Amino acid sequence: MESKTDRTEPTAPPSAASAAAISAVLGDDDLLREILLRLGFPTTLIRAAAVSKRWLRHASDPTFLRRFRTRHPPALLGFYIRELGARGPRFVPVSQAPELATATRRASAAEGRFFISDCRNGRLLVMDFDPTACRHAVLSPLHPARGKVVLPPAPKQSLIWFFLTENGGGYDGAVAVLMLPIGTTKTKVQVDLLTSGSGVWVAHRTVVIDLPETLPPIAYTLPPVRGKIYSLTKSGHILGLDMTAAKSSLIQRPDKVRTDNFMLSFGEEGSKLILIHAEGYLLSIWQLATTRSDSNDWVLVYDKIRVHEAWNRLEDVMVMAADDNLEFVFLWLRSSAVLMHMHLKSRSEKVYDEFKVRDGRFLDINPFMMVWPPVFPALREEDNVEG
Protein backbone atom coordinates (compact mmCIF):
# COMPACT_ATOMS: atom_id res chain seq x y z
CA MET A 1 0.00 0.00 0.00
CA GLU A 2 1.31 3.42 -0.93
CA SER A 3 2.27 5.55 2.02
CA LYS A 4 1.85 9.26 2.28
CA THR A 5 5.62 9.70 1.99
CA ASP A 6 5.63 7.88 -1.37
CA ARG A 7 3.19 10.26 -2.98
CA THR A 8 4.43 13.39 -4.76
CA GLU A 9 2.26 16.33 -3.87
CA PRO A 10 1.81 19.05 -6.52
CA THR A 11 3.65 22.25 -5.82
CA ALA A 12 1.25 24.89 -4.70
CA PRO A 13 1.56 28.35 -6.22
CA PRO A 14 2.93 31.01 -3.88
CA SER A 15 0.30 32.54 -1.71
CA ALA A 16 -0.59 36.18 -1.90
CA ALA A 17 1.28 36.72 1.37
CA SER A 18 4.42 35.05 -0.01
CA ALA A 19 4.27 37.08 -3.23
CA ALA A 20 3.85 40.24 -1.18
CA ALA A 21 6.85 39.31 0.97
CA ILE A 22 9.01 38.66 -2.13
CA SER A 23 7.90 41.94 -3.65
CA ALA A 24 8.72 43.78 -0.42
CA VAL A 25 12.24 42.33 -0.35
CA LEU A 26 13.04 42.93 -4.03
CA GLY A 27 11.41 46.35 -3.87
CA ASP A 28 13.81 47.46 -1.13
CA ASP A 29 16.92 48.92 -2.79
CA ASP A 30 19.18 48.15 0.16
CA LEU A 31 18.10 44.50 0.31
CA LEU A 32 18.35 44.17 -3.47
CA ARG A 33 21.96 45.39 -3.43
CA GLU A 34 22.80 42.87 -0.68
CA ILE A 35 21.26 40.08 -2.75
CA LEU A 36 23.18 41.13 -5.87
CA LEU A 37 26.37 41.31 -3.81
CA ARG A 38 26.11 37.59 -3.06
CA LEU A 39 25.81 36.38 -6.66
CA GLY A 40 29.47 35.38 -6.75
CA PHE A 41 30.42 35.85 -10.43
CA PRO A 42 30.35 38.85 -12.80
CA THR A 43 28.61 36.67 -15.40
CA THR A 44 25.72 36.06 -12.98
CA LEU A 45 25.64 39.75 -12.12
CA ILE A 46 25.25 40.63 -15.82
CA ARG A 47 22.31 38.24 -16.17
CA ALA A 48 20.68 39.73 -13.08
CA ALA A 49 21.17 43.24 -14.48
CA ALA A 50 19.11 42.26 -17.52
CA VAL A 51 15.97 41.90 -15.38
CA SER A 52 15.16 45.60 -15.47
CA LYS A 53 16.64 49.07 -15.68
CA ARG A 54 16.38 49.33 -11.90
CA TRP A 55 18.45 46.18 -11.38
CA LEU A 56 20.92 47.37 -14.02
CA ARG A 57 21.27 50.72 -12.25
CA HIS A 58 22.19 49.01 -8.97
CA ALA A 59 24.48 46.38 -10.53
CA SER A 60 26.46 48.92 -12.55
CA ASP A 61 26.81 51.52 -9.78
CA PRO A 62 30.57 52.19 -9.23
CA THR A 63 30.25 52.04 -5.42
CA PHE A 64 28.45 48.70 -5.62
CA LEU A 65 31.02 47.34 -8.09
CA ARG A 66 33.88 48.22 -5.73
CA ARG A 67 32.17 46.21 -2.98
CA PHE A 68 31.51 43.34 -5.40
CA ARG A 69 35.15 43.21 -6.53
CA THR A 70 36.40 43.17 -2.94
CA ARG A 71 34.11 40.25 -2.15
CA HIS A 72 34.50 38.44 -5.48
CA PRO A 73 37.80 39.27 -7.25
CA PRO A 74 37.87 38.53 -11.00
CA ALA A 75 38.28 34.79 -11.49
CA LEU A 76 41.14 33.04 -13.28
CA LEU A 77 39.64 31.18 -16.24
CA GLY A 78 42.81 29.37 -17.24
CA PHE A 79 46.10 30.07 -18.97
CA TYR A 80 47.58 30.23 -22.43
CA ILE A 81 50.72 28.16 -22.92
CA ARG A 82 53.12 28.18 -25.81
CA GLU A 83 55.94 25.67 -26.04
CA LEU A 84 59.14 26.10 -28.03
CA GLY A 85 58.48 25.39 -31.69
CA ALA A 86 54.69 25.46 -31.33
CA ARG A 87 52.68 27.27 -34.02
CA GLY A 88 50.86 29.26 -31.35
CA PRO A 89 49.47 29.15 -27.82
CA ARG A 90 46.80 26.78 -26.55
CA PHE A 91 44.34 27.49 -23.76
CA VAL A 92 44.21 25.28 -20.66
CA PRO A 93 41.15 25.84 -18.42
CA VAL A 94 41.57 26.07 -14.64
CA SER A 95 38.10 27.13 -13.47
CA GLN A 96 35.43 24.43 -13.30
CA ALA A 97 32.62 26.81 -12.26
CA PRO A 98 29.48 26.25 -14.40
CA GLU A 99 28.84 30.01 -14.33
CA LEU A 100 32.11 30.55 -16.23
CA ALA A 101 31.70 27.75 -18.78
CA THR A 102 30.78 30.10 -21.65
CA ALA A 103 33.75 32.39 -20.91
CA THR A 104 36.10 29.39 -20.74
CA ARG A 105 34.79 28.07 -24.07
CA ARG A 106 35.34 31.45 -25.73
CA ALA A 107 38.89 31.67 -24.35
CA SER A 108 39.63 28.24 -25.84
CA ALA A 109 38.45 29.43 -29.25
CA ALA A 110 41.05 32.23 -29.34
CA GLU A 111 43.99 30.01 -30.26
CA GLY A 112 45.97 30.89 -33.38
CA ARG A 113 49.37 31.59 -34.89
CA PHE A 114 50.63 34.40 -32.71
CA PHE A 115 52.83 35.23 -29.74
CA ILE A 116 51.20 36.79 -26.66
CA SER A 117 52.92 40.02 -25.57
CA ASP A 118 50.49 40.90 -22.76
CA CYS A 119 47.41 39.29 -21.27
CA ARG A 120 45.03 40.88 -18.76
CA ASN A 121 41.47 41.89 -18.10
CA GLY A 122 40.03 39.39 -20.56
CA ARG A 123 42.13 40.60 -23.51
CA LEU A 124 45.24 39.52 -25.38
CA LEU A 125 47.93 41.69 -26.95
CA VAL A 126 49.40 39.48 -29.65
CA MET A 127 52.11 39.67 -32.27
CA ASP A 128 51.24 37.87 -35.50
CA PHE A 129 53.60 35.34 -37.01
CA ASP A 130 53.50 37.07 -40.38
CA PRO A 131 56.59 36.43 -42.55
CA THR A 132 56.22 39.81 -44.25
CA ALA A 133 55.67 42.01 -41.17
CA CYS A 134 55.36 41.52 -37.43
CA ARG A 135 52.37 43.49 -36.27
CA HIS A 136 50.61 43.80 -32.93
CA ALA A 137 46.87 43.38 -32.45
CA VAL A 138 44.36 43.23 -29.58
CA LEU A 139 42.01 40.27 -29.22
CA SER A 140 38.99 40.13 -26.91
CA PRO A 141 38.15 36.41 -26.65
CA LEU A 142 35.29 36.99 -24.19
CA HIS A 143 33.67 39.50 -26.59
CA PRO A 144 34.32 37.94 -30.04
CA ALA A 145 32.06 40.48 -31.78
CA ARG A 146 34.77 43.10 -31.28
CA GLY A 147 37.02 41.19 -33.65
CA LYS A 148 40.72 41.85 -34.05
CA VAL A 149 42.04 45.39 -33.55
CA VAL A 150 45.32 45.83 -35.46
CA LEU A 151 47.70 48.36 -33.91
CA PRO A 152 49.84 50.90 -35.80
CA PRO A 153 53.33 49.86 -36.95
CA ALA A 154 55.86 49.91 -34.10
CA PRO A 155 58.14 52.93 -33.73
CA LYS A 156 61.64 52.22 -35.07
CA GLN A 157 63.52 52.48 -31.77
CA SER A 158 65.06 50.01 -29.36
CA LEU A 159 64.06 49.54 -25.71
CA ILE A 160 60.36 49.53 -26.41
CA TRP A 161 57.66 47.44 -24.74
CA PHE A 162 53.99 47.05 -25.63
CA PHE A 163 51.15 46.56 -23.14
CA LEU A 164 47.39 46.62 -22.93
CA THR A 165 45.71 49.65 -21.40
CA GLU A 166 45.20 49.54 -17.61
CA ASN A 167 41.40 49.34 -17.61
CA GLY A 168 40.02 47.75 -20.73
CA GLY A 169 36.27 48.16 -20.41
CA GLY A 170 35.08 48.59 -23.96
CA TYR A 171 38.38 50.03 -25.22
CA ASP A 172 40.74 47.74 -27.09
CA GLY A 173 43.80 50.00 -27.23
CA ALA A 174 47.36 49.56 -26.09
CA VAL A 175 50.26 51.59 -24.74
CA ALA A 176 53.95 51.48 -25.53
CA VAL A 177 56.85 52.39 -23.26
CA LEU A 178 59.86 53.80 -25.09
CA MET A 179 63.18 54.39 -23.28
CA LEU A 180 65.87 56.45 -25.01
CA PRO A 181 69.24 56.83 -23.19
CA ILE A 182 70.54 60.40 -23.36
CA GLY A 183 74.23 61.27 -23.66
CA THR A 184 77.31 59.08 -23.69
CA THR A 185 77.15 58.29 -19.96
CA LYS A 186 73.57 56.97 -20.25
CA THR A 187 72.69 58.31 -16.79
CA LYS A 188 69.64 60.11 -18.19
CA VAL A 189 66.77 58.50 -19.99
CA GLN A 190 63.86 59.92 -21.94
CA VAL A 191 60.69 57.91 -21.28
CA ASP A 192 57.81 58.19 -23.73
CA LEU A 193 54.41 56.73 -22.95
CA LEU A 194 52.68 56.21 -26.28
CA THR A 195 49.04 55.38 -26.92
CA SER A 196 47.55 53.87 -30.06
CA GLY A 197 44.86 55.69 -31.96
CA SER A 198 43.82 56.72 -35.49
CA GLY A 199 46.42 54.44 -37.04
CA VAL A 200 49.46 56.03 -35.34
CA TRP A 201 51.25 56.03 -32.01
CA VAL A 202 50.76 59.30 -30.11
CA ALA A 203 53.01 60.56 -27.30
CA HIS A 204 50.75 60.62 -24.25
CA ARG A 205 53.49 61.68 -21.85
CA THR A 206 57.23 62.40 -22.20
CA VAL A 207 59.68 62.94 -19.34
CA VAL A 208 63.46 62.99 -18.88
CA ILE A 209 64.63 61.21 -15.73
CA ASP A 210 68.05 61.08 -14.05
CA LEU A 211 69.14 57.52 -13.32
CA PRO A 212 70.91 56.30 -10.16
CA GLU A 213 73.56 54.70 -12.39
CA THR A 214 74.22 53.97 -16.04
CA LEU A 215 71.14 52.45 -17.62
CA PRO A 216 71.59 48.72 -16.96
CA PRO A 217 70.60 45.95 -19.37
CA ILE A 218 66.90 45.20 -18.82
CA ALA A 219 65.48 41.69 -18.71
CA TYR A 220 61.80 42.67 -18.83
CA THR A 221 59.45 45.54 -17.95
CA LEU A 222 56.11 45.44 -16.16
CA PRO A 223 53.10 47.30 -17.58
CA PRO A 224 52.95 50.98 -16.56
CA VAL A 225 50.59 51.46 -13.61
CA ARG A 226 49.62 54.82 -12.09
CA GLY A 227 52.45 56.60 -13.88
CA LYS A 228 55.12 54.20 -12.60
CA ILE A 229 57.24 51.74 -14.55
CA TYR A 230 59.27 48.89 -13.04
CA SER A 231 61.92 46.96 -14.93
CA LEU A 232 63.94 43.95 -13.81
CA THR A 233 67.57 44.43 -14.78
CA LYS A 234 69.85 41.56 -15.74
CA SER A 235 71.85 42.22 -12.58
CA GLY A 236 68.79 41.24 -10.50
CA HIS A 237 67.94 44.79 -9.34
CA ILE A 238 64.65 46.57 -10.04
CA LEU A 239 64.69 49.93 -11.81
CA GLY A 240 61.73 52.09 -10.84
CA LEU A 241 60.73 55.09 -12.96
CA ASP A 242 58.12 57.54 -11.66
CA MET A 243 56.89 59.56 -14.64
CA THR A 244 54.75 61.87 -12.50
CA ALA A 245 57.57 62.92 -10.17
CA ALA A 246 60.30 62.51 -12.85
CA LYS A 247 62.34 60.40 -10.42
CA SER A 248 64.05 57.03 -10.52
CA SER A 249 65.17 54.49 -7.96
CA LEU A 250 67.17 51.28 -7.96
CA ILE A 251 65.31 48.83 -5.74
CA GLN A 252 67.23 46.05 -4.06
CA ARG A 253 65.56 42.69 -3.78
CA PRO A 254 64.93 41.39 -0.22
CA ASP A 255 68.03 40.16 1.60
CA LYS A 256 66.62 36.63 1.89
CA VAL A 257 66.16 36.38 -1.87
CA ARG A 258 69.55 34.89 -2.62
CA THR A 259 68.90 33.41 -6.08
CA ASP A 260 67.68 34.82 -9.39
CA ASN A 261 64.77 32.35 -9.45
CA PHE A 262 62.03 34.94 -8.98
CA MET A 263 59.51 36.96 -10.95
CA LEU A 264 57.75 40.30 -10.51
CA SER A 265 54.08 41.20 -10.86
CA PHE A 266 51.52 43.67 -9.55
CA GLY A 267 48.89 43.12 -6.88
CA GLU A 268 45.86 45.05 -5.58
CA GLU A 269 45.37 46.97 -8.83
CA GLY A 270 48.94 48.24 -9.00
CA SER A 271 49.32 49.42 -5.41
CA LYS A 272 51.70 46.55 -4.57
CA LEU A 273 54.79 45.27 -6.34
CA ILE A 274 54.92 41.49 -5.85
CA LEU A 275 58.09 39.35 -5.85
CA ILE A 276 57.64 35.56 -6.01
CA HIS A 277 60.83 33.65 -5.17
CA ALA A 278 61.65 29.95 -5.30
CA GLU A 279 64.58 28.25 -3.61
CA GLY A 280 64.70 24.48 -3.90
CA TYR A 281 61.13 23.29 -3.28
CA LEU A 282 60.15 26.33 -1.16
CA LEU A 283 58.33 29.50 -2.19
CA SER A 284 58.38 32.92 -0.56
CA ILE A 285 56.30 35.92 -1.62
CA TRP A 286 57.12 39.54 -0.85
CA GLN A 287 55.29 42.77 -1.52
CA LEU A 288 56.36 46.40 -1.74
CA ALA A 289 53.92 49.30 -1.58
CA THR A 290 54.37 51.37 -4.73
CA THR A 291 53.18 54.47 -2.86
CA ARG A 292 55.89 54.41 -0.16
CA SER A 293 58.99 56.59 -0.34
CA ASP A 294 61.24 53.85 1.07
CA SER A 295 61.84 51.81 -2.06
CA ASN A 296 63.37 48.84 -0.20
CA ASP A 297 60.74 48.32 2.49
CA TRP A 298 59.72 44.79 1.44
CA VAL A 299 57.10 42.92 3.49
CA LEU A 300 57.13 39.11 3.64
CA VAL A 301 53.62 37.81 2.79
CA TYR A 302 54.26 34.05 2.57
CA ASP A 303 57.38 32.36 3.91
CA LYS A 304 58.74 28.92 3.03
CA ILE A 305 55.67 27.48 1.33
CA ARG A 306 56.48 23.87 0.58
CA VAL A 307 55.71 22.67 -2.94
CA HIS A 308 54.82 19.09 -2.05
CA GLU A 309 55.08 17.77 -5.60
CA ALA A 310 58.67 19.02 -5.83
CA TRP A 311 59.45 17.84 -2.29
CA ASN A 312 58.16 14.34 -3.07
CA ARG A 313 60.27 14.20 -6.23
CA LEU A 314 63.33 15.76 -4.52
CA GLU A 315 63.74 18.49 -7.12
CA ASP A 316 63.72 22.26 -7.54
CA VAL A 317 61.00 24.46 -8.96
CA MET A 318 61.18 27.46 -11.27
CA VAL A 319 58.67 30.33 -10.99
CA MET A 320 56.83 30.80 -14.28
CA ALA A 321 53.81 33.06 -13.76
CA ALA A 322 51.05 34.20 -11.37
CA ASP A 323 47.53 35.50 -11.86
CA ASP A 324 46.58 39.11 -11.09
CA ASN A 325 44.97 38.21 -7.75
CA LEU A 326 48.02 36.27 -6.55
CA GLU A 327 45.77 33.25 -6.15
CA PHE A 328 47.57 30.81 -8.45
CA VAL A 329 51.32 30.45 -9.01
CA PHE A 330 52.58 28.46 -12.00
CA LEU A 331 55.79 26.47 -11.52
CA TRP A 332 58.05 24.27 -13.59
CA LEU A 333 59.74 21.19 -12.10
CA ARG A 334 63.30 21.22 -13.37
CA SER A 335 64.16 17.50 -13.37
CA SER A 336 60.74 16.11 -14.29
CA ALA A 337 60.29 18.87 -16.90
CA VAL A 338 56.58 19.26 -16.12
CA LEU A 339 54.36 22.25 -15.44
CA MET A 340 52.22 22.60 -12.32
CA HIS A 341 50.26 25.21 -10.42
CA MET A 342 49.63 25.88 -6.74
CA HIS A 343 46.55 27.54 -5.28
CA LEU A 344 48.15 29.65 -2.56
CA LYS A 345 45.23 29.88 -0.15
CA SER A 346 44.37 26.17 -0.08
CA ARG A 347 47.90 24.96 -0.98
CA SER A 348 46.32 22.55 -3.46
CA GLU A 349 48.52 21.53 -6.39
CA LYS A 350 47.91 20.29 -9.92
CA VAL A 351 50.51 18.76 -12.25
CA TYR A 352 50.11 19.01 -16.04
CA ASP A 353 51.91 15.86 -17.12
CA GLU A 354 51.07 16.51 -20.78
CA PHE A 355 53.55 19.39 -20.93
CA LYS A 356 57.14 18.17 -20.98
CA VAL A 357 59.88 20.52 -22.17
CA ARG A 358 63.59 20.28 -21.58
CA ASP A 359 63.97 23.86 -20.38
CA GLY A 360 61.21 25.85 -18.66
CA ARG A 361 62.73 29.10 -19.89
CA PHE A 362 61.19 28.30 -23.27
CA LEU A 363 57.68 27.98 -21.86
CA ASP A 364 55.47 31.03 -22.28
CA ILE A 365 52.66 31.10 -19.67
CA ASN A 366 49.92 33.77 -19.65
CA PRO A 367 47.17 33.51 -16.98
CA PHE A 368 43.81 34.67 -18.39
CA MET A 369 41.35 36.50 -16.12
CA MET A 370 37.72 37.55 -16.35
CA VAL A 371 36.99 41.10 -17.52
CA TRP A 372 36.58 43.81 -14.89
CA PRO A 373 34.47 45.87 -14.68
CA PRO A 374 31.69 43.78 -16.26
CA VAL A 375 30.35 44.96 -19.60
CA PHE A 376 26.61 45.39 -19.09
CA PRO A 377 24.29 45.20 -22.12
CA ALA A 378 21.94 48.09 -22.81
CA LEU A 379 18.30 47.33 -22.13
CA ARG A 380 15.55 48.04 -24.61
CA GLU A 381 12.32 49.65 -23.41
CA GLU A 382 10.41 46.36 -23.82
CA ASP A 383 12.94 44.61 -21.56
CA ASN A 384 12.10 46.90 -18.67
CA VAL A 385 9.77 44.47 -16.90
CA GLU A 386 9.62 46.50 -13.71
CA GLY A 387 10.01 50.13 -12.79
TrEMBL record:
InterPro entries: AT5G49610-like_b-prop, F-box-like_dom_sf, F-box_dom. Residues 29-68 form the F-box domain. Residues 116-376 form the F-box protein AT5G49610-like beta-propeller domain. Transmembrane segments: none annotated. It comes from the Eukaryota. Signal peptide: none annotated. Pfam families: Beta-prop_AT5G49610-like, F-box-like. This is Uncharacterized protein. The lineage of its organism: Eukaryota, Viridiplantae, Streptophyta, Embryophyta, Tracheophyta.
